[in-house]
Structure formats: structure tokens, C-alpha cells
Design goal:
8 strands, 6 helices, 8-stranded mixed β-sheet, alpha/beta, Rossmann fold
């Protein structure tokens, strides 16, 4: 069983870094791919509220495919179409009120990703779902960051987490991972693929994809109040009193008294 160990997270996104990323061709292409991948999953969410936590994309562009009654973006950077600005580790939302939460690279730019996940788990309903987008630490962007060759347009301060590590964190919160979808814009130049699909050559290079989308749902065991069972009445086998005999005149014989004599036919 994995042990939850606190670790230093990433640095929050700045307005300048996010704007520069959205203006570069690679950033726009990635957001379009992520919007398309979310379009496969968000229509299956039933309920009232879908929230995006963290600034990524333009306004509610990532939530366009959601068919719930209400959707909103709680951003961390001003002037990017957010409904409100928040601290990602402190969600001003009541418990058990949100049907789905989208985290577009929010964990990577969060100073305390563990606390953020606990907050997300708190606000989800019993059938709530969470969608996490992240950069693969073994992808091109992750390797370049380790080597100190980061793309100038890529936002700095991110800390990458592998999909396997994130699955362990969600397991500790009783969130069941239902799909891990991997995709890339460059190397390894493979189509989007979900873990567990039939084997092919693409399965060998999928772990080196640049980014992933992880879908999980809250795993709550329903509690049924069972009333006290009614036992069947059991008749005693011994100690049954014999029925009282009656005389010819209708009176009842008491214990020890002789009953009516047998009639002769």
C-alpha cells in the first residue's frame, strides 16, 4: 500500500506565463486536443454542476461539451475568463455539491497537490467524477525540463507527476480510476490511446506520450438501514397444557378431577 508523503509542489501560474503559452502554436494545439478529449467524457456526466479548477484555456472552452445545468471556471490567474479567482488549496464550495471537477494541469502548478485533491474529494457528490490533465514526466517536455532545455514558451514552475503516481493518490481518497488516456503533439507521434486497449505497436510507445487525461469517479459504498428481522413463531415441543375436558352438563373439569365417563354405544 502506498504511503502518502508530503512533497513540495510546483509554483503557481503567472498571468504572463499563461498568456505566452496560449499564444504559442504548441500551446493552442494542446488545448484543442485536451478539449476534444474532454468532449468524449463530459457528456456522460449527469447532475447540476461542473467546475473547472485552475486557469487553463479561454474561459469555459474546456467545458463546452458538458450538458449539466451549470458550469463555471474557478481560476487562479486573472483576465482569462474565470467566473471567480480562488486559491486552489481553499475551495469556497460546500461539501458534496459538485457533480464533476476538471483539473487542467492544476496539480502541477499547485504548492500542495495533496491538499487540493482532498478538497476536490470533499466537494464531490457521492457519484461525482474528476478529470485530471497532466504532463508526462517521461515525455518530451518532462525530459527537456530535467535537462534544463525547457521551451521558453512553456510555463515555468511546473512539477510533473506520472499517471501511476496520481492513481495511487486517488486510490487513497477512495476515487476509482476508470480511464487513463495518453496523447501527444510531437514525439512519439502516436494517436491518442487509453491504457488497457488491445495490444499494438503503439502500446510500446504510449508511456512516452507528452500528456495524459485521467478520469476517476468517487467510490462510495451505500449504507442501507436494515430493520430488525421478524422471527417466525416457534411452538414449544414440550410443556403444552392438555385441553380441559368438559362434563355432560358443560362444566369444565379441574386438574385432578375425573372427566366424564365414556359413553357406551
Amino acid at each position: 500500500m502506498s504511503v502518502w508523503r508530503p512533497s513540495r509542489g510546483g509554483r503557481p501560474l503567472s498571468r504572463q506565463a499563461l498568456g505566452q503559452w496560449q499564444q504559442c502554436p504548441r500551446g493552442r494545439q494542446l488545448i484543442e486536443v485536451e478539449q476534444r478529449e474532454l468532449g468524449r467524457l463530459l457528456p456522460d456526466v449527469f447532475g447540476r454542476h461542473v467546475l473547472q479548477i485552475g486557469s487553463w484555456g479561454n474561459g469555459e472552452a474546456l467545458l463546452q461539451s458538458a450538458e449539466t445545468l451549470h458550469r463555471a471556471v474557478l481560476g487562479t490567474v486573472a483576465d482569462f475568463g474565470a467566473s471567480a479567482l480562488i486559491e486552489s488549496e481553499r475551495l469556497p464550495i460546500a461539501s458534496s455539491t459538485v457533480d464533476a471537477v476538471v483539473l487542467p494541469h492544476t496539480l502541477e502548478f499547485s504548492a500542495s497537490p495533496h491538499h487540493l485533491l482532498r478538497e476536490v474529494n470533499r466537494i464531490l457528490t457521492d457519484r461525482g467524477r474528476v478529470f485530471v490533465m497532466g504532463f508526462n514526466p517521461w515525455g518530451v517536455w518532462g525530459v527537456r525540463q530535467r535537462l534544463g532545455l525547457r521551451d521558453p514558451a512553456f510555463p515555468g514552475g511546473a512539477r510533473f507527476y506520472s499517471a501511476g503516481r496520481l492513481c495511487d493518490w486517488l486510490e487513497l481518497l477512495d476515487l476509482e480510476v476508470v480511464e487513463v488516456r495518453r496523447f501527444s503533439l510531437g514525439f512519439p507521434w502516436a494517436a491518442a490511446r487509453s491504457d488497457g486497449e488491445s495490444w499494438s505497436l503503439a502500446a510500446l510507445i504510449a508511456p512516452f506520450s507528452e500528456a495524459y487525461l485521467l478520469a476517476a469517479r468517487k467510490r462510495v459504498v451505500p449504507i442501507r438501514l436494515v430493520g430488525r428481522p421478524v422471527r417466525a413463531q416457534v411452538r414449544p415441543l414440550v410443556g403444552i397444557a392438555a385441553p380441559a375436558a368438559r362434563r355432560d352438563d358443560g362444566s369444565v373439569c379441574r386438574d385432578g378431577e375425573a372427566g366424564p365417563p365414556p359413553r357406551l354405544t
